[in-house]
Write a structure and sequence with these properties.
single chain; 348 residues; alpha/beta; 5-stranded parallel β-sheet; two-stranded parallel sheet; 19 helices; 7 strands
Length: 348
């Protein structure tokens, strides 16, 4: 189940087996903290009760640890990280079956299905689990599974709604549009960063509704987000505004590599949107192939219609050359300015 559903159901279910799997460690850390808070009254009790294991664990050894009653505490909690039990490894499965080790797994599955009242098992994997494996199906049936899917711009709404709900806040339309645009510029989305920055919003104002002005204050120091206005000006093909914003970024000390990377990404997305629309894929339908939030994908599609495809192709080739010339010191910022001018004013 997804993070939001997992966190809502967790206090209502008396589960003894958990699997927290996926690339988004922010979700895994939050879920693990809530599980521990539900099991223990304080950190000392947790320290005395939790056995931490890492990597490969023999199935029979795990069965023995699960069935061993704790001596000085009420609970026996096994925290197992980086296990391969949930990975897709068919060749290994066949080898285990031939060697009789498959029977060990069956014994483990039986124990997981009928856990002792004093024992709990928490599997943590930094990778997506293979849902076809017997052990995954058993944990899903008898316990709780968190699918910690990596956050991208196109699927961040679940996190956003959950965060706003926990803050008892909502967003106005302009703030939502700004947030989606800002996040779309982030090549890697850090939920820890966004979590901290949203917490700052509660310090700025007691107002229930978050405005665009408040978000701008919070995100202003992030280079990728401050370049957002530059990309917007390019999308509008407003050469004067785009050049002014480009020079401001360079004067403020933003590295050309950051600008070049985001500019290349923006041109590539415009070109992709242009091609997709010629194939009949339009509006919010652009979101999936572009891996963008539907709101941003639709906006990008409208912007792409303003550009001749030859201009986008020419600019992409120039940006590829610019990457080499700038990094080798054979060109200066004028090459970026030329590309921006051609994007905004160029014709087929």
């Amino acid at each position: 189940m997804k993070f939001g559903e997992f966190m809502v159901k967790l206090p209502k279910q008396d589960s003894h087996v958990f699997l927290l799997a996926g690339e988004e460690h922010y979700y895994i850390d939050k879920a693990l903290a809530k599980i521990m808070a539900g099991l223990f009254s304080d950190q000392q009790e947790a320290a005395d009760s939790v056995q931490k294991l890492n990597g490969e664990v023999d199935a029979d050894d795990l069965v023995s640890m699960i069935n061993t009653a704790p001596f000085f505490t009420e609970k026996n909690v096994l925290l197992i990280r980086n296990t391969t039990l949930f990975k897709d490894n068919r060749k290994k499965d066949e080898a285990q079956k031939a060697s009789g080790k498959d029977k060990k797994l069956e014994r483990l599955l039986n124990v997981l299905a009928d856990m002792p009242s004093f024992s709990y098992v928490i599997f943590v994997s930094p990778e997506k689990a293979d849902k076809r494996r017997k052990i995954y199906k058993q944990v899903e049936k008898c316990g709780m599974v968190l699918e910690a899917e990596a956050i991208r711009a196109w699927n961040i709404n679940d996190w956003l709604q959950g965060k706003l709900q926990s803050m008892n806040r909502d967003m106005d339309r302009d703030a939502y549009a700004y947030f989606q645009g800002a996040v779309s510029m982030m090549q890697q989305i850090s939920l820890e960063f966004l979590d901290r920055e949203f917490d700052k919003l509660t310090l700025f104002s007691d107002d229930r509704r978050i405005t665009k002005a408040a978000l701008v204050k919070v995100f202003a120091g992030l280079p990728e987000v401050s370049i957002f206005a530059l990309m917007d000006a390019i999308s509008e093909r407003n050469a004067q505004k785009a050049l002014m914003l480009l020079r401001r970024q360079l004067d403020d000390g933003t590295y050309f590599t950051v600008i070049l990377s985001l500019l290349t990404r923006h041109v590539r997305q415009l070109w992709q949107a242009k091609v997709l629309q010629e194939k009949g894929i339009r509006g919010k339908a652009l979101a999936k192939p572009l891996e963008l939030n539907p709101f941003i994908a639709e906006k990008l599609g409208k912007a792409a219609q303003r550009f001749p495809e030859s201009v986008l192709k020419r600019s992409m080739l120039e940006l590829i050359d610019a990457d080499y010339w700038l990094k080798t010191g054979q060109a200066g910022n004028e090459i970026l300015e030329h590309t921006v001018i051609d994007l905004c004013c160029g014709v087929a």
